Amino acid sequence: xxxxxxxxxxxxxxxxxxxxxxxxxxxxxxxxxxxxxxxxxxxxxxxxxxxxxxxxxxxxxxxxxxxxxxxxxxxxxxxxxxxxxxxxxxxxxxxxxxxxxxxxxxxxxxxxxxxxxxxxxxxxxxxxxxxxxxxxxxxxxxxxxxxxxxxxxxxxxxxxxxxxxxxxxxxxxxxxxxxxxxxxxxxxxxxxxxxxxxxxxxxxxxxxxxxxxxxxxxxxxxxxxxxxxxxxxxxxxxxxxxxxxxxxxxxxxxxxxxxxxxxxxxxxxxxxxxxxxxxxxxxxxxxxxxxxxxxxxxxxxxxxxxxxxxxxxxxxxxxxxxxxxx
Length: 326
Description:
By secondary structure, the protein is mainly α. Helices cover 75% and strands 1% of the residues. The radius of gyration is 26 Å and the shape is elongated.
């Protein structure tokens, strides 16, 4: 009913004057009940309702001006005041606000985190703080991503992009293109995903971040494989394998070998698939990765069976069964 009134009934002037007194629990329930409130980035703000307790008025006691530390309750009050007077939000308070957002996200209170960030972006715009704006929009995207609102996540990442590029923060640029590319990937827009992954790659090369480069090679490779560009995918998996081996990342080595085995099997090169898969299994055995080994033994047994090695296939099926029983 609240959402209907805001969106349909009230003219702009009255809407600006409208005030609802809500506890954080009530606010969470409202947001959970009508996700469409978040389709507008600046259309909803909150002020925690005072609640009586043996210690007195909790909201008043936690107000931003009353203590040095900003709390998860007082941050709402502070940001409302900062919308009128942006100087209320200094560098230290911004850091505290972002810390509160991260803690709310970790404690699965994403609706509260969104409220803080939406108010925070309005103040940051007035201050012209581009770097903090980029961070806020990316966090809003991450919240939507974790809530599986992938379309909304893409909107927030798009909002972050001009600020990220203007401040020329290469780490944030890499983070943005990685995360937005992966979001496109999950939505099934493989070409858009590849485009963002390829934007991240030269940045990771300049940053000398081999871990991120290997990750990008694998992700582009998987997307290309899904588009049936198998030879290009194989080259990228080989690049990833080289980097993972050089870094000593055994889990990454196993993953890259598994990808290469899958491609070889698709190309009907069973012998090569067996070789790559055997290397992956060797690494997983060294890591004692029992969960991964059960699946790997089963897959490798299928390859041996297809290659006519029935005794070896039977041995591997038994190994997989032993782990699954445990």
